[in-house]
């Protein structure tokens, strides 16, 4: 009787061992078996605070089929559940559940990039963020003032405060995260640049320098002309002349601008119309790059008060109104030899005290 009982216990023990071995073997096979994917690469995002079960559900929803209970136990028994990091990842064809878990524990995230272009307005930057499928949208319905307050800025208008550059990010990063990085980078570069300013500038604060830099950014893309263009506006500010720069008028027109400025547009007053209001506009009109910022605080020293586009990306500068009008005739009106095509001029008036003379603006 005892021998028979011992025999049964032994067989039961062997069966348990075999079952356990089979279970371990099956689990090992499942852990290391490649996951069938519908594509070579599949992106997925792990949100902060996600549990192993939440991650498994995220994988399945993204098209990476894993057995949820198995993934949970694998993460907990290996204690890798405590190391999983939030962010954007990719599942590759041939990946196993174990390889994916290790990738999450290492934080081996995928990267994307987004570029904010020099001369872009804040509206264009927000459009780029909305159009990027890897950016998580969190700012819909958030006012500009609320955004700036959240960034810790005392300035309520966001224009020009987000530095134009290429930013690397992981899929799932929020629009606010990227704007925060661009804002902090802009503040850092602005303060560094302001510290390099020339003495006796007509701009008295770093923010005013940013406003002037945004105008320089929109006026010329020709590197050698930047400091000279900045010098023209600096000279005008010093003597009290109107800046008369078309990009500020265009900015003030908003959506009403359809690619052409008419005489009535120059005469229609807005806070940004430098044909009707003296001094700098109240805010930047675009995102200024490092070169434009440096030009604004280190303008070229000269006597020029006017410039006109040659039609090839460069500008012709002059110190007197009569010389400027000859340049306008040559390069804009096409009345001189080797005339270059240019925009149709509009009738404008300078504000050079005490008696203004009729003229074309400095950028026409």
Which labels suit this protein?
44% helix; two-stranded antiparallel sheet; 364 residues; 9% strand; single chain
Tell me what the structure shows.
Helix 8 (206-219) crosses helix 12. It is elongated, with a radius of gyration of 32 Å. Helices cover 44% and strands 9% of the residues. The chain is mainly alpha-helical. The strands form four sheets. A two-stranded antiparallel ribbon has the order 1-2.
Continuous helix count? 13
Count of distinct strands: 8
Give me the secondary-structure category.
mainly alpha
Shape from CA axes?
Answer: elongated
Low-confidence stretches: 335-360
- Radius of gyration over C-alpha positions, nearest whole angstrom: 32 Å
- Report, as a whole number of angstroms, the end-to-end distance: 113 Å
Strand content: 5-15%
**Roughly what percent helix?**
40-55%
Mean pLDDT: 86
From N to C, what is the helix and strand string?
A: HEHHEHEHHEHHHHHHEEHEE
State the strand order across the main sheet. Answer: 1-2
The major β-sheet equals: 2 strands, antiparallel
């Amino acid at each position: 009787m005892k021998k028979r009982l011992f025999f049964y216990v032994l067989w039961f023990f062997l069966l348990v061992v075999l079952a356990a071995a089979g279970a371990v073997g099956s689990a090992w096979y499942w852990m290391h078996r490649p996951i069938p994917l519908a594509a070579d690469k599949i992106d997925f995002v792990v949100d902060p605070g996600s549990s192993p079960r939440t991650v498994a559900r995220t994988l399945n929803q993204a098209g990476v089929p894993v057995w949820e209970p198995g993934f949970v136990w694998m993460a907990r028994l290996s204690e890798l559940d405590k190391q999983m990091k939030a962010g954007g990842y990719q599942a590759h064809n041939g990946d196993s559940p174990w390889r994916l878990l290790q990738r999450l524990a290492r934080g081996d995230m995928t990267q994307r990039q987004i570029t904010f272009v020099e001369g872009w307005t804040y509206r264009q930057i927000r459009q780029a963020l909305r159009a990027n499928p890897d950016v998580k949208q969190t700012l819909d319905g958030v006012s500009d003032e609320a955004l700036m307050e959240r960034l810790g800025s005392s300035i309520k208008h966001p224009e020009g405060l987000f530095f134009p550059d290429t930013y690397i990010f992981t899929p799932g990063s929020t629009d606010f995260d990227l704007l925060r990085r661009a804002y902090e980078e802009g503040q850092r570069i602005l303060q560094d640049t302001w510290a390099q300013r020339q003495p006796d500038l007509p701009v008295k604060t770093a923010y005013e320098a940013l406003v002037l830099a945004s105008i320089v950014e929109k006026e010329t893309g020709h590197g050698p002309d930047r400091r000279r263009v900045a010098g023209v506006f600096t000279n005008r500010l010093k003597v009290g002349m109107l800046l008369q720069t078309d990009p500020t008028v265009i900015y003030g027109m908003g959506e009403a601008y359809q690619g052409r400025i008419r005489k009535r547009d120059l005469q229609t007053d807005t806070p940004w119309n430098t044909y009707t209001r003296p001094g700098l506009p109240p805010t930047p009109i675009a995102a200024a790059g490092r070169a434009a910022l440096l030009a604004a605080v280190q303008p070229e020293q000269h006597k020029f008060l006017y410039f006109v586009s040659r039609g090839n990306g460069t500008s012709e500068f002059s110190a007197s109104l009569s010389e400027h009008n000859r340049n306008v005739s040559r390069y804009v009106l096409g009345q001189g030899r080797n005339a270059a095509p240019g925009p149709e001029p509009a009738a404008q008036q300078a504000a050079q005290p005490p008696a203004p003379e009729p003229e074309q603006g400095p950028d026409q």
